[in-house]
Predict the structure.
Amino acid sequence: MKAIEITAPGKIRIIEKEAPQPKKGEALLRVLYGGICGADVASYTGNQPFTTYPRIPGHEFSAEIVSIPANDRGLKAGDVVTCNPYFNCGTCYACRRGLVNACHDNQTMGVQRDGGFQEYITMPVERIIDGKGLSAKELALIEPFSISCHALSRAEVRPGDNLLIMGAGPIGLFALLRAKALGARVLIADMLESRLALAASFGADRTVNVKETDLHDACGAFTGDCGFDVCVEACGAPETFLSCVSEAAHGANIILIGNGKRETTFVHSILLKKELNVFGSRNAFTKDFEALIDLVAAGGADVLKMVSGVYAMEDAAAAFEALAHNDGTLAKLLIQIGD
């Protein structure tokens, strides 16, 4: 079978390898579409500290079940599904408390272990998630959507809440979709007009280009100078985190999704003065995948609007290069792996 392999930073190729054989409790899946995540791009550019090479990337994917053991979940050959790609050890302190998404020895497909950008994979049956009739393209977008869904579940979001999202990349946009489904009023800020235009099409109540508009003034006008009930940091930059702290209402919740690489310096007394709650968020639970599949199936979110292009498997190098040099005009790119 064919697989996409990052052989070293900046080097990607199509290889031939043996098709996997399922072990006890595993199903054989034929991969259909894969979405390229920022973590995959980081592996390609050499900026992913958890990746070793060579590595088959990909943890956002859809697949068709080829064969599967008898199970009590109704899954059968021919079903189009997605999967939970975060492998946990099951024995660490986090796992023992049910926090399997924050496993001390987490192994995400495509990062710490080979991923789904190959024609066939095997998967433990309990990690397979029923697609409930969604298209293969839609199912390849559920994993990144689940990241934002899980993040918003860390803090209560109620209908009518004012919610700020810093960053209109794919994760910020998915957070917008989830927040609107929960009934929040959303202001989303970014530096790129193309991303903000997509945010507007997804139902943002207000978009702010921080290069052209004073963010604090825009936030004050949006909330009546009361501040935001929930602030979502989806960039991983010190500046955007500090904006969340500044624009949060007293007693507000701040949720961190963006993976920061620089230190943030601030006087923490502002957290005390406002009595702010700050939540980190990592990965997602299977229940997050399931909830979003139901949401999309019910017409509650048009995730396909997130797709900026679909590449053939043979053109994977071009897709990775496009995202490595993304000027902000690209959201999600999919690779078609199966028919």
Notes: The domain at 155-280 is CATH 3.40.50.720 (Rossmann fold). The chain has two domains: 2-146+284-336, 155-280.
